[in-house]
Amino acid sequence: MLYNIATVEAYIKEDEGDNKYLQMDEIMKKLFTLKEKRPIIDFLNAAYGDDLSYEAEINYNNTEIINTKGFSSTYMTFHADMFITAMEDDKILEYALEFQTKFDEEILIRMFRYSFERAAKLVYFKEKNKLRLKLPEPYLIMLEKEKGIDNEIKLEIEIPKALPINFKVKVLKYWDYDLDRLYKENMYLLYPLQIFKLRKDMERIKNSKRSKAFIEKEMNLLNIKLLESITKTYIAIEKAYEDGKIEVTNYDEMTTVIVNLKSYLLNRYDLKDDVDEEVKIMFKGFYDPKTEAIWIEKGIKLVAENLIKDGDPIEKIRRATGLSDEQINELRKLVETKGEH
Known about the structure:
Elements: E1 2-7, E2 11-12, E3 22-23, H1 24-32, H2 38-48, E4 57-61, E5 64-68, E6 75-79, E7 82-88, E8 91-100, H3 107-122, E9 125-127, E10 130-132, E11 137-142, E12 152-157, E13 165-173, H4 179-184, H5 199-206, H6 212-242, H7 248-268, H8 277-282, H9 289-309, H10 314-321, H11 325-339
Parallel strand pairs: 1-6, 8-11, 11-13
Antiparallel strand pairs: 2-3, 4-7, 5-6, 7-8, 9-10, 12-13
Helix pairs in contact: 5-6, 6-7, 6-9, 7-9, 9-10, 9-11
């Protein structure tokens, strides 16, 4: 028998039976498995204080851990978010990353358990009377603002008649990072998550006991902020491209994440793709609908072209991008024409 007793999905799902949810673990994995590895290596160096070169080999390891329960035929399965191995020359570095939207008091126990099981598979050093395990270095990315979270959290393990073991986990509090800081600290890999910062405010307004008119007005203003955030994020990605930090394929993959996040927020909070003229006038100092439309259109077309190249059916492309069959067929012709040269 196979029991999944400790699967932790970093998804957002507010109400029972609500199908408007977002699997954040899949979003994060998309960002951390970009085809071109420079953004990932930059992030690992920044987060862990390492000095990997861009020639380092990056491997993603199986996150499913299966243990037998005693001597029975029952199996327990655990799913960590991500194990990464970086290899360069004679150096091998093991990383364990977890992504959380809300702080869970048991996350330290789970992270230790995941790391221990991963180390048990590797068996770093072994002799007849001695076994040494090397745990992957843990790192926790917290997405939504929460009070009282330190930059490092600790698990202390007491062993009778021995010194306690301290398992320490560094924490990235994403709410403290804007686009500029992400760029300066070489964590631009996380650019697309900027628009997710508005989710908590949207949820608060949606559940407000205020009048319908008040809620509509506040949501409209948040919609404007969403469009502004999307525009600024696209511009930041373009700058990273111009500076040689990301490749065209990275741009495409990051755009896919932005499109997914935007679709979730629009769907979950019943937002419109446009906003009232009155609000546009109020916020014309920072909102340029023409610019936002250009960047979104460019991103959607890149997603569609990539799906076409992968041979995906037109139905899937239509669902993923919102483009019409005619627009998709036109892009298909362009892709085929490019391929002939």
